[in-house]
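ok so I'm stuck.
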Amino acid sequence: MGRTMQTLKLRPMTSVGDGFSWPFQDPQWFSKIVLQGLISIIPIVGWIALVGWLVLTIDHYRTGRRDLPPAGFHLERGLVLFVVYAVYAIVFAIPGAIVQGSGMANDNAGTQALGNLVSLALSALLAFLAPSIILHTYRSGFNGGFDVSGIWQMATSNSTNTIVAALVIFAAGFIGALGFALCCIGALFTIPYGAAITAGAVAWYDHVMSGPAPATTSGAG
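replied:
not stuck anymore, here's the structure
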């Protein structure tokens, strides 16, 4: 009990690297991560639950807590962020797909290559905007998630912080995908762990960017 309480009242996340180590400071980290990984196997519902768990982890990390939230079907907390990010992913994928499709229809290798280049550029742009998109959605729900001008302003107001957070989120996604190399079994651990790393990056980004977050997180619930 004493050890658990010590994990709840510690310094806020002030280093972006904390997101890699803090999950392991929870005495129950293994059971929480693996159980959330099992839930994430469920198509759509499991993914939304994982995003909800990510949002709850941001809640903890923003206040300096180093314990992970309990695993579970956190659908209410995850639905908004899941939908917002899915919309961005689809919108950013459309231009490249159109150009590639045109090249394939006309058997034009140059147009297909251009389509690949457009897709790569837009993927990089989405990765750059990801910390701001997630944080805006976390703070203000759909309104914040689709506040394109506000998202762009935050992302570009301190590009260094944004790039650092974006690189950590990218690394988290890479770590999550690594589990599939072990006959998918490893993904039960790596995917939730990647989500916890992402939560750490967003909590750090929230800390270092200008303006305090609101006391309530209506966008997450």
